[in-house]
Amino acid sequence: MSGVSSSVSSPRSPRPTVAIVGGGVIGLSIGWRLAQAGCTVDVYERGRAGQGATFAAAGMLAAGVEVEPSEEGLLPLTLRSQELWPDFARELEAASGRSVGYRAEGTVVVALTRDDAEQLRFTFELYERLGLAIEWLSAADALRREPMLHPRLAAACYSAADHQVDNRRVALALIEAFRRAGGRLHEETGVDSLDVEGGRARGVTVRGERRPADIVVLAAGAWSRDIPGLPLAVRPPVRPVKGQMMALGMDASRPLITHVIWAPKAYLVPRSDGRLIIGATTEERGFDTSITAGGTLALLDGAWRVLPGIEELPIVEQWVGFRPGSRDDAPILGPTSVEGLVLATGHHRNGILLTPVTAQGIASYILTGQVPDALRAFGLDRFPQRKETTS
Questions:
Q1: How many CB atoms lie within 10 A of CB 191?
Q2: Burial (0-12, 13-18, 19+ Cβ within 10 Å), 70
Q3: Is residue 22 one of the residues assigned to a domain?
Q4: Theoretical Cys-Cys bridge with 220: which of 22, 244, 278, 356, CB 3.0 to 4.6 Å?
Q5: Whole-model pTM above 0.85?
Q6: pLDDT value of position 171
Q7: Which positions ≥6 away from 370 have C-beta within 8 Å?
Q8: Distance between CA 132 and CA 114 in Å, rounded?
């Protein structure tokens, strides 16, 4: 994928100055595309860049196997972003000099019992109706692909198009590419408030200092609705959805699995360095950072049932992340009724997957003033209008 600056037909002139609130993959990738296009871009991150939901993710690019009946409207966007990922990864690696750990072995969805197999068959029929190229596997077929899976599994599906990246490497690469393109990254620098006057975003205030900008992009993930100075009428309905995860240590030269594995109660993501990512719980507990016995047990039990060999592996890391969930679990992308204020948040569990299409679409809007067709269904205006008098 080429930079947005080479693909827009009628760029604004002069290039706008842009302040981006949030230094995860969404904010960094938008910033990178805009810096490539010649914009002056500042990214403000309250902590360390890439250390929030980006750090906590598993890096699955699973537009196919993750689709659910209630989320069919999101599928064109996720499929488009999945198509962009191989070129995006190559360009990012070239621009940063860093690997992003892109792996294309595909994803295997496993059914362990007869009941699981009936549910998987129902899901497979949904895949077929949606035109997804996902293959039904017998138990024997699945075990030929992954011999260490439970020998008595019932059935499986295989998606060749659902790949993975190492999300933490992606973040490091975006930081470097953004800086090389001329972007300015401000870490440990929370935004005191958005500056909004006369119905227009004028910039941000940081450490008591006003920093003007033509465009402000709000890309602060689960924290997006809590930025001071954000008018209530354009406050995105985003909440934190807690997820507990862990990593086990495999022998990198003899990994237990090579594909991403989706089991009934856990997913398993093998990394090239030998780490085996296991995730993830889904909890409505606000910004609770505790790692719980119940969460740990659920992850280990779900993984062990499909891959018994994990029993001897060491636990090398456990962590908590906060997915930015919206009311309909789809992202909130594009302009608002406050002129100059742009939203790029609410990606829920698809933040890594949707990074290329979000960066491309938001940067294109900022450069041309036109909302790309791919983003039109995901504006803030799909939710009921909020008023300043609402509590």
A1: 26
A2: exposed
A3: yes
A4: 22
A5: yes
A6: 98
A7: 364
A8: 24
